[in-house]
Amino acid sequence: MSLILFDDHSWENLLPLSYTKPISELRVGILTIREKWEKVLKMKGSALTRDYLSEKFPSVIEKENILINGSLLPNKDLVKAIEGLQAGDAIKKDGVILAVKTGNEIPDLHTLSASEYPGSVDLIDFPWKIFRLNGQEIEADYQLLTSGRKSAKLSSTVNVIQAENVFVEEGFKGEYFTLNASPGSVYLGADSEIMEGSVIRGPFALCEHSVIKLAAKIYGPTTIGPHSKAGGEINNSVLQGNSNKSHDGFLGNSVIGEWCNIGADTNVSNLKNNYANVKLWNYPKNRFLDIGLQFCGLIMGDHSKCGINTMFNTGTVVGVSANIFGDGFPRNFIPSFSWGGAAGFSTYKIDKAFETIELVMERRGVELTKSDKAIYLHIFKETEKFRS
């Protein structure tokens, strides 16, 4: 039997984070959504996604398949309900298809007849849901990853509050920092590092091969994805992976994609001066929408960068492979492949963007493949309408 995580209409609402990947590849908590389902169902997962992404993220279809909505987060009752599905069964919640058990032919998910699921569900169907639900997902993933296992030991120089809520993977290193795990669990991934003088409050996840720089101040619930560097002041934010926010400056209530770099002394506003709800750019509606939250900072797509001393207004959305620099506040919606700042933007030419992308990935020993290039070229063409 095969596990297939499918993209529904939420894929559009999750742009720009979903331009480069299926929904199920987004990280919330410690794990990606796919990794969560793989662990709870003990099955290898694949994706059913947009055509231009399918070469890099192909579907694996067997004689029997369980299809699960890629934006759906697992919980105990939901897992039990999905495991109890018979061939041809489907469940939905408030009109959203949650899961289907099927044969080797994938049904039309738009016209599927499904039973109403009576329990509660959480969906990552908008970008801000990633930081909003990050605390509960750190706790859920913490249990998945640590149950029945013994933590490695921290150095005696580390000041720990409620050490029973801290799990340390092998290869972690760090001296003379403070962890307060009383507000929530703290997970320190394999071969990660926390440098001296840092102060961290849970819930907090530091994924494998990532580094917290000297004297960082981090408030939970925050996740630093794998192969990333973080420093300065961070509050309730998620770095998806392979990204750097290494220096002083504030980042709050934000989601940073993969392969991003935040310049030194960059500051992100996460609260409007008038305390009004934040309006965030929505791609399918082609306008800003009230998200019902007072706190929301920056949503940044993969491979975007900003220079030193950049200032982002509350509720700024930056697309894929944008390069932002200069003084003043740039506008609240910066299209993909944009180059500039508050003084105005021009198009970041695709050949120049590829040069930067290749250099950035080479530093971590990762190759920019033909399928990667095809994805970015598609995004470049698709987002031209926003740059005009």
Layout of helices and strands, plus pairs?
Blueprint: E1 2-6, H1 10-13, H2 33-41, E2 45-48, E3 65-69, H3 76-83, E4 90-93, E5 96-102, E6 115-116, H4 128-132, H5 134-146, E7 159-161, E8 166-168, E9 173-174, E10 178-180, E11 186-188, E12 193-194, E13 199-201, E14 204-206, E15 211-212, E16 217-219, E17 222-224, E18 229-230, E19 233-235, E20 238-241, E21 244-245, E22 250-252, E23 255-258, E24 261-262, E25 267-268, E26 279-282, E27 287-290, E28 298-300, E29 305-306, E30 311-312, E31 316-318, E32 323-324, E33 333-334, E34 338-341, E35 344-347, H6 350-362, H7 370-382, H8 384-387
Parallel strand pairs: 1-2, 1-3, 4-6, 7-10, 8-11, 9-12, 10-13, 11-14, 12-15, 13-16, 14-17, 15-18, 16-19, 17-20, 18-21, 19-22, 20-23, 23-28, 24-29, 25-30, 28-31, 29-32, 31-33, 32-34
Antiparallel strand pairs: 3-5, 4-5, 26-27, 34-35
